[in-house]
């Protein structure tokens, strides 16, 4: 089997951004276009936090894991910072939230810039502040509904 | 720059050495009062890669005074899980320094790691390339 992840042009989190328009269900191949040329320097994926590999060097199992991860990240709520929340600073980039910034809320209620946290969640699926595993927290949120 | 204006006790940034190269910091840390390292001053070197804060910085002791501690090798490499496996992008230079001072403070007996001689002879220059085995919690 070949790659199940498409090769994006920018970086790994671009997959998240375009998720709405780029869903490939296997029937509509016109959206995909021609296969991308072989690239040595492409986006890097992190099957485990300390390992970086281009998509062509991922095992099938790692690709499935990363695809699932992207799906889970997309389930996490996002919002626009309006200044009413308690959080003042994104502890990843150490920049203050500005009104209009796109933020993502984790189940533990910690808030980050969407770009900052998505980049981290692709490496490790834990909250940087409380270390709570995000998938476990997501599941318990579902169970309590 | 809370670390510059209001540093926690025992942690001080060497501004002169940073100004030339922002990706390399030297931080002076002092052993906490009432511990085996009271009054001693050590220098920590931080090297930030292009993927910081998503990748941990490279942190090691440099200079003439390398603390004698079971988790610090004589070449300055530090065996501390937050510097590799347990890194979080929410950690700052300040919190890393405090963790290291705290690691020193909890030491009961000043001695080198048991495999110091072998490790120092065979390790990479970059401590992040070492596969650390972490024992116990700090």
TrEMBL record, chain A:
Q: Where is the RING-type domain?
A: 90-130
Write down what this protein is called: RING-type domain-containing protein
Q: Name one Pfam family in it.
A: zf-RING_2
Molecular function GO terms recorded: ubiquitin protein ligase activity; zinc ion binding
Region ranges (Disordered): 19-46
* Domain of life where this protein originates: Eukaryota
Q: Which keywords describe this protein according to UniProt?
A: Metal-binding, Zinc, Zinc-finger
Q: According to the UniProt entry, which residue ranges have a biased composition of type Polar residues? A: 20-30
Supply the source organism for this entry.
Answer: Ridgeia piscesae (Tubeworm)
TrEMBL record, chain B:
SMART domains cross-referenced by the UniProt entry: UBCc
Residues forming the UBC core domain are 1-138
Q: Which UniProt keywords apply?
A: Transferase, Ubl conjugation pathway
Molecular-function GO terms, alphabetical: ubiquitin conjugating enzyme activity
Q: Which domain of life is it from?
A: Eukaryota
Q: State the EC number(s).
A: 2.3.2.23, 2.3.2.25
**Per its UniProt record, what InterPro entries does this chain match?**
Ub_conjugating_enzyme, UBC, UBQ-conjugating_enzyme/RWD
Indicate what this protein is called per its UniProt record.
N-terminal E2 ubiquitin-conjugating enzyme
Species of origin: Ridgeia piscesae
